[in-house]
Protein 1
Amino acid sequence: MSDLTVVAIGASAGGVQSVKDLVAMLPPHFPAAVLVVIHFPPTGISVLADILNRAGPLPAVEAVDGERLKPGRIYTGVPDRHLMVEDGVIRLSRGPRENHCRPAIDALFRSVAHAIGPRSIGVVLSGTLNDGTAGLIEIKKLGGCAVVQDPKTALFREMPRSAIQAVSVDYVLPLHDMARVLEQIVQELDSPEHDRVSHVASTAMEGTVMTPDHKSADDRVIAAILKSR
């Protein structure tokens, strides 16, 4: 198993804004590699890396097959390829679609679980249907940590709800708490006295949940490119 910690983030509908908000709050010296899959159409060009590069302090790049993962960097999936990890190296695969998608969140989570084991952290954000649930189960089975956006704060609640119902989730959090908790998890994994105890932290956000009509400017800009199911 790798000594590198990997945070694998999956989102679908409403996911661009969710991921953007999350990475904006990560610290500039975040000691883990961050991999992001949002459902793309099979053709076109993704501008997700550019959006995330502007959003926060961590550099974001489009994933390249064969590139070795580095901490403190964000890697985004590409259209019509599964984003996967093997021996600390990025693999882009044209394997079968999962949940009608390529890239699929389950493919990312499953590969990270097997490559990274207990140093893997799976994060499920806004989205429809259940992509990410099966992969999150695999992360937990191999000793990793499961973090899910509080459905009450998600633009689309089905993916978070599916994960919570099927997985022994460690944390259920609104986005404004998630970056801080992810940093704490990574610090605990790096600590020699590490003895993480799984628990569920559910925090409700007060106020009105956004509707699909309240998409951000970035969501609108790439609507023709990043189509969610």
Protein 2
Amino acid sequence: MTRLAMYRRWQLRALHRNQLTLRHLVETISDPAAFQWRDGGEPDGWTISEALGHLCDFESYMLERARFLCGETDDEPPQPEAGPVVMVKEAGYAGQDAGELLARWLGYREALFTLLSGLDCDDEALWKREIDFAGGPFSLDDQLFLAAMHDDDHMNQIVKIARGM
């Protein structure tokens, strides 16, 4: 096994563990008012539901890109038409139930994890295959490494919101 294949396996485990971590984080928030709080204050900060909605948007794009790169579909994956802040506001995630958004994200994540974990981590050609996405090349490797880091950023954001920071 190459070093990069080992790193891929570690990242896949992180994607899987993050499902449990995010679920635990959201389901153990005991103060219902915390779901109305925003990080960074009004109007620029996000609520927990908005952070979860953004994670749903991100994960759905990641899943479609992965399916395309793995040859599961010939349809070019959609490109976001707006940045995440605009998408979160337009979708009205602040008024949506955090539990439902969490369940949606878990579904996307499980599908992405199942797809990626079924790939040969030593298949360099597959993991390095690229598409042009949002103005630049993007590979399965890029997706795998970005997804785990992205999870961490937003789990930390949710902790800060729940703590009223």
Protein 3
Amino acid sequence: MRRFLAGVILAVVIAAVGRGEASADVGVALDVGKIEIEQKLSRGGDYRLPMIGVRNPGSETTTYRMGVNYSGEQTVRRAPEAWFSFDPAEVTLAPGETAPVSVTLDIPAGARPDDYEALIQAEIAPVGEGTTVGAAAAARLKFTVKPSNILQAWQLETETWFGDNQPWTIVVPAVAALVALAWWMRRRFTISIGRRD
């Protein structure tokens, strides 16, 4: 009877320990949900975004990797991941711990002036080899890249009027028609100015 009772107690202890390990909780949280940059940004500029706090809300030490993702419901241009750098790019946190991550946005000189959007995210880094899907938390970033000069501003404005059709498909033929009309009028009517005696 004592052996049986000792066996039952041992089984209950093993089950409780096993359940505690199985219910280990992993997750990720950010202290920022949305970043909207009101000022228009210049092409070729480097911008330091607000510091993002990455927090481990889980019950075990976890490594997080910073990156950029995109939403399926975006209505504006996607900001390429190559424009972003993170310091640090990876962070390991104990349960309840938070670490600051600085984000730099480097807009290339050849960037198209437009409205942009991206999701700045921290995701649980995969452990070991192979691909795994980990939990992630993201902050939505919105910003506008302004034209560098008046010509670019005019081009953007005409694209708003004409859509994806380049204005040159309308402007160039119209200018050519005006030149041809002026040439024809000049040949048809000879205007001479002379002195009256």
Protein 4
Amino acid sequence: MTGPATWPRRLSEIPALVLAGGAGTRLRPAVPDRPKALAEIAGRPFLEHLLERLAAEGIVRAILCTGVMGDQVARWAARYSGPVELALSHESEPAGTGGAVALARRRFGLERTLVLNGDTYFEAPLAPLLAAASAAGAPGALLAVRVPDTGRYGALETDAAGRVLRFVEKGQRGPGLISAGAALLGPEILAAIPDDRPVSLEDEVLAAWAGRGLVAAVGEGRFVDIGTPESYRAAEEMFAGTGGVR
């Protein structure tokens, strides 16, 4: 790092990037006709639930990074009338999650951003994420949650100060911390993302910053993703008020 990173005081000063371009292959049996971000949960598109959550945390602007079936997201965004100002960044060729961030960075001149998975919902507050990044002068910060089994997600190893030491590959079972699908990225990390090839944000970009100042803020609250038919049903139960997953 070249020196401690500086962060604004409020989340309202940081635009969100919502990664909504994935093919959703595993979810296809349950949701065959639309992108994951628009899968209906409790009668509303999942993306609407996520944006509502972001608005409650003070986010006022979001860029939707689209890819497969991006035309559907664009049509939905044109009808959206919620409190978050929306813009679109569409990839014509698969760029990976990191490539989608790099593309939006160039198009919108981003210096800092909050990146979120478009198929993940969390109830943990985001303010501690910004506080952790600011206190440490960190190049970036991850929102983390504790789950009883990290096998499906891959785990985060951190030290007592919350610094991310390494990312553990998927498949290793047992309780632990996982990324909740929200990451604050500062100028150093954004500038380091390759923009000439597809790249994974977590596996290549963020993993390279483990042990180099990246921090995690551990949050409490329910967490769910809709990447598989099973977790999609769990999300439906959570939003219907009859259950949930961690």
